Amino acid sequence: MAPRRRWLLLLAALSIGLGHAAAARAPEWPDPDPLTGPRSRLSDRKDWLGTRPLPADSEILVMAGHADSQGMAGAGTSGEAVDLLGAAPMTDGMRDELHWNMLTARAVVALGQQRGLRIRFYDPEIRTIANGNDPRTNWSVGRAHAAAGGYALEIHYDAYGPDGVGSGLIPPLHRAPSRLDESLAQAFGSYPLQFRQGLGAPRRGIAILEIGKLEGPLEAALRDPLRSQATIEAIARRVVDALEQGMARSSPGSLAVSPQPDAERSAPPGRRR
Questions:
Q1: Rounded Cα gap, residues 257 and 151, in angstroms
Q2: Any idea what DSSP says for residue 34?
Q3: How far apart are CA 164 and CA 35, in angstroms?
Q4: DSSP readout, 169-218?
Q5: pLDDT tens, position by position, 17-67
């Protein structure tokens, strides 16, 4: 047998033996990604592996990050275009991040429903809720959803410049990471479990998906009227593809939850990270 063929067979055997661990070390997308930009620079510090299956009938709840924290600490980033390049905000009274969070989250849910996923969107509609434990906040609704056995996901865009980390999944902390977490990490990159000592959403059982840093080609594509819709749809397809893959690898079972709420919101004002 030729040496090259023996080496390929050896690699195949190793990949089968290592299972998900091998997949976790092999990103499926280039870095930097031509659409979403640099992946999380903390991906090499990934200290978790999502192997826990979810029940096949689990419902996915999607929320827009910072939907209830405008005008206060944790409002999200305004983006490079507004802060550095003098552009006007996309929506008056709203950080640009929330504008794109909302459009992306809604697109993910619409496409997911078209493909037959059990998925829905939650919007608190009140843009400033000071108490993070108010029953109308993303945190409260997401925590209840996770406690009932569902998967809660908050969509974000990361800060620009050195404050941003890059695209990736911050997994929830209420249980061992799931196969759905792993699938999203494969598509976008990953953050360590205790990123910033545990943010408010993950401590409540809510995964945070950072789509990318709100700067450069990604932000330009989002702001371009000729490319904006296609860009959002492309991002939504990647998210939904990952959700489908994660659910397809799951099998029925129980999902117990022990939420661990903390006392403060997940981000400082201005450039969130």
A1: 11
A2: T
A3: 16
A4: EE--SSSSPBHHHHHHHHHH-B--TTGGG--HHHHTTEEEEEEEESSHHH
A5: 333 333 333 445 677 899 999 999 998 889 999 999 998 889 999 999 999
Q: Which residues in the chain land under pLDDT 70?
A: 1-29, 249-273
Q: Which residue type does 230 have?
A: A
Task: State the pTM of this model.
Answer: 0.81
Q: How far is CA 19 from CA 6, 16, 25, in A?
A: 20, 5, 11
Number of structural domains the chain divides into:
1
CA gyration radius for the chain? Answer: 19
- The CATH code of the domain that includes 139 is 3.40.630.40
Q: Per the domain annotation, does 145 fall within a domain?
A: yes
CA dihedral 84, 85, 88, 94 (to 10 degrees): -30
Any idea of the CA torsion for 185, 167, 143, 23, to the nearest 10 degrees? Answer: 0
Domain residue limits at 148: 30-248
Residues ≥6 apart with Cβ < 8 Å to 195: 42, 170, 202
Angle, vertex CA 103, rays to CA 97 and CA 104, nearest 5: 85
Residue type, 59: E
Q: What letter does residue 40 receive in the DSSP assignment?
A: P
37 domain residue, yes or no? yes
In a domain, residue 17? The reply is no
Q: What is the dihedral of CA 170, 172, 176, 181, to 10 degrees?
A: -50
Helix (H, G, I), strand (E, B) or coil at 46: coil
Q: Cis check for the bond before 162: say yes or no (omega within 30 of 0).
A: no
Distances in whole angstroms, Cα of residue 12 to Cα of each of 5, 22, 27, 149, 187: 11, 11, 17, 36, 22
Q: Which two tokens stand for residue 43?
A: 């991906």
In a domain, 234, yes or no: yes
Alpha carbons 84 and 62: distance in angstroms, whole number:
30
Alpha carbons 272 and 76: distance in angstroms, whole number: 5
